[in-house]
Design goal:
Elements (H helix, E strand, L loop, with lengths): L1 E13 L11 E16 L3 E5 L5 E4 L10 H16 L7 E7 L13 H16 L6 H13 L8 H8 L2 E5 L10 H6 L6 E4 L7 E6 L6 H9 L5 H18 L4 H22 L6 H12 L3 E4 L7 E6 L6 H6 L3 E3 L10
Parallel strand pairs: 3-5
Antiparallel strand pairs: 1-2, 2-5, 2-6, 3-4, 6-7, 8-10, 8-11, 9-10
Helix pairs in contact: 1-2, 1-3, 2-3, 2-4, 3-4, 7-8
C-alpha cells in the first residue's frame, strides 16, 4: 500500500509576532511550494530525501537524529495514536521531496519544519485510513512539535494543513500530558482557523534575501518584552490592523494595511532592539514602493523573505536581482477544506 501527503509552505502577510499570543490574529498565505512525502510499507523505518542522498534506517521510534527530528517526532506521535486506537501498524518507508529550499540547499524561510511535520502526519492519516479531519491533524502536528520543545504560534502548521489564505489565532496554553486521543478530542480554547475571501484580486511579489534566520530565537527575544506596557499597547494595535486588513473592501485599503503593519514591526524593532528589517529587506521594500507597492518582511524577519502587494500585476525581477534579492514565484496553495 502507498499514500502521499503534502505540507504547504507559508508566508505571513500580517500578524507575525503578535500571533504567538492567544487570540491575536494573523493572515497567512499557504504557498504552492511545499514538501511532498510518499509512504509505503517496509520492514524497517526509512526516511530518505529525494533532493539528496540523505537516508536513515531505524527500528525504534525513540531514534534520535538532529537532521530528521521533525520527521521522527511526527512518526512517534502518530504511532502512539495508532496504539491507543489498537490499530494494526508496521514500519514504513517515507521519501521526502521539498521545494522549500534553494538550489544549494538553503532554507527559503517558507516554513519547512511545519511543512514536513504536516506532510508526514497527513500522509500517515491516508496510509492508515484514519479519516482525521484537518483540525485533528493540526493538533497532532502541534503535539509533535511540542515534544521537541518548539514553541511559537504554530501558524505555519495551520497553513501547511489547510492551504489557501487563512485567518489564524493561536490556542491558549494547555496541558499536553495524557493520551493523544484525549488531546485531539479536547476543545482548544481560542484556536481559530478560517479562510479569507478578499473581494478583490491580489497581486504580490516575494523576494528571498539569502539570509537565514532562526525564527525561534527571534520570537524568544521578543517574548522577553511580554510584560512591558508598551508591548501590550503594540499587541492591541496589531489586532486592530489585522482585523482592518481582513475587512478590506478594496486593494487600496489592503495596501494601507500592509504599510501599517510594516510600521508596527518597525516599532517592535525599536522597543526590543531586534533587527527585523535587514538592509536587503529595506532594499526590497524600497523597490516595491517605487512601483506603487506596499511591502514588509514576512515572518520573523532578520532575513529570509519579504513580500509586497501591488494594485496591478508587474514584473520587477531584474531590479530585485540587481539589489541582490532572489525573486520567488509563489502562488497560493489550494484549499484543503471545501
Amino acid at each position: 500500500m502507498k499514500a502521499e501527503g503534502i505540507g504547504w509552505g507559508k508566508l505571513y502577510i500580517a500578524g507575525e509576532y503578535a500571533v504567538v499570543h492567544p487570540g491575536h490574529p494573523a493572515i497567512i498565505m499557504a504557498t504552492q511550494r511545499c514538501i511532498r512525502v510518499s509512504i509505503e510499507s517496509s520492514t524497517q523505518f526509512i526516511l530518505k530525501s529525494a533532493n539528496s542522498d540523505r537516508e536513515i534506517i531505524f527500528d525504534d521510534l525513540s531514534h534520535s537524529d538532529q537532521y530528521w527530528k521533525y520527521a521522527v517526532s511526527a512518526l512517534n506521535v502518530f504511532y502512539r495514536l495508532l496504539k491507543e486506537k489498537k490499530r494494526f501498524h508496521s514500519a514504513v518507508s517515507i521519501t521526502i521531496e521539498s521545494d522549500l529550499d534553494s538550489v544549494d540547499g538553503r532554507k527559503l524561510g517558507l516554513g519547512s519544519s511545519g511543512a514536513i511535520t504536516a506532510a508526514i502526519i497527513k500522509g500517515l492519516n491516508r496510509f492508515y485510513l484514519l479519516n482525521l479531519d484537518e483540525i485533528s491533524i493540526f493538533k497532532l502536528c502541534v503535539i509533535s512539535q511540542s515534544q521537541l520543545k518548539v514553541s511559537g504560534s504554530y501558524g505555519d502548521l495551520a497553513a501547511a494543513i489547510f492551504g489557501g489564505v487563512i485567518r489564524y489565532t493561536r490556542f491558549a496554553d494547555l496541558d499536553m500530558s495524557g493520551s493523544i486521543s484525549d488531546m485531539i478530542a479536547r476543545d482548544w480554547a481560542q484556536l481559530s482557523i478560517s479562510y479569507i475571501d478578499f473581494p478583490f484580486k491580489l497581486h504580490w511579489v516575494v523576494g528571498w534575501t539569502g539570509e537565514t534566520v532562526s525564527t525561534q530565537s527571534q520570537v524568544d527575544w521578543v517574548y522577553e518584552y511580554r510584560n512591558s506596557e508598551k508591548y501590550a499597547l503594540l499587541l492591541n494595535q496589531s489586532k486592530s490592523i489585522v482585523s482592518d486588513m481582513i475587512e478590506s473592501v478594496d486593494v487600496k485599503d489592503f495596501l494601507i494595511g500592509i504599510r501599517r503593519y510594516r510600521d508596527w514591526l518597525n516599532q517592535l524593532e525599536i522597543l526590543t532592539d531586534l533587527m527585523i528589517e535587514t538592509p536587503l529587506i529595506k532594499a526590497f521594500i524600497g523597490v516595491c514602493i517605487q512601483h506603487n507597492g506596499s511591502g514588509k518582511s514576512s515572518g520573523a524577519g532578520g532575513g529570509d523573505c519579504a513580500i509586497a502587494f501591488f494594485p496591478h500585476a508587474l514584473d520587477i525581477s531584474d531590479i530585485l536581482l540587481r539589489e541582490g534579492i532572489m525573486p520567488l514565484t509563489i502562488t497560493i496553495a489550494k484549499r484543503e477544506v471545501v
